[in-house]
Amino acid sequence: MWEYTDKVRELFLNPKNAGVIEDASGVGEVGSMACGDALKLTLKVDDSGKIEDARFQTFGCASAIASASALTEMLKGKSVEEAGKITNREIADYLGGLPKEKMHCSVLGQQALEKALADYRGEPPKEEEEGEIVCECFGVTDRQIETAVRENNLATVEDVTNYTKAGGGCEKCHDQIREIISRVRAERQPRVRPQMSNIQKIRLIEETLENEIRPALKQDGGDIELIDVIGNRVLLSMRGACAVCKASQQTMKNFVETRLREMVAPDLEVEEVPA
Q1: Is-catalytic flag, 245?
Q2: Which one from 105, 135, 173, 245 is the annotated catalytic residue?
Q3: Residue range 216-273, pLDDT digits in tens
Q4: Which CATH class is domain 198-272?
Q5: In the annotation, is 170 catalytic?
Q6: What is the CATH number of domain 127-187?
C-alpha cells in the first residue's frame, strides 16, 4: 500500500478543474487507455499570454487524478512562458511528494502541458522527434526515457519504471533501458575542477544557487539562502513558501543537491538548517 500525502488525498477525493474547456486555446493529450494512464489538458489563454483557466480529463489512479488537478491549479494566472518552465518534480512537490512508484503521473502532466503549449503556439506535432518504441508493453520511446533520465537524474531501471512505466511489464527491454541510462548519465558527468580553492567553491555554489536554483524556487514563492560551506557540507536555509513546504527535504535533496553536484562538485552534501 502506498503512502499518500494529505494533498494527494484531497485532490483525488475532491479534484479541482475537472472537465474540458470547449473553446480552448491549447489542447494536450498524452498516454492511452491501453497503457493504463491517459490525460487531456485544455488551456484558456488571454490576449496578454496569461493562462486564465486550465482543465483536465484523466483515466488513471489517485496519483494521476491528483497530479492533473495540481497542475491545473499551478497553471492558473501564470504566463505561457512561466508555464513552460514547470517540471514534473514541481508537480510532485506541490502535492507534498508522490510515492516513487507513482512519479510517472507527474511526468504525464508535464508531457500534456508541453503538448498543450505547443498547440497554443500553433506548432505542428513533432512526430519525427517521438523516437522509437523501447517498451512495447506501455508504448514508451527511447526519447521519453532519455528525457526522464536527464531531467530527474535517474540511475536504475527501477527508477525509469517509476517515472515512465517502461520496463514494468515483460522486462524484455531492461537491457536497452540500461544502455540509455548509461549513455545519458555519461553526458551529465560533472565538470572536473582540479585544485579548486574553498573561496572558488563558495563562489561557484553562490552562482549556481543564483542562476540555476533560486529562479525555480521563486516560481512557487520560495527562496533559498546559503548559510555556510564546511568542507563538502553545504548548509542552506529554505525561505518563503519553501520554508513551510512539507516537500522541502525532497526538494533539497532531489533538486538542490543534484544541481550543486552537477555544477560544482560531485561530492557535495547539502544540509538544511533552520531559518
Answers
A1: no
A2: 105
A3: 888 778 899 999 999 999 999 999 888 887 777 878 888 898 889 888 888 899 999 8
A4: alpha beta
A5: no
A6: 1.10.10.1100
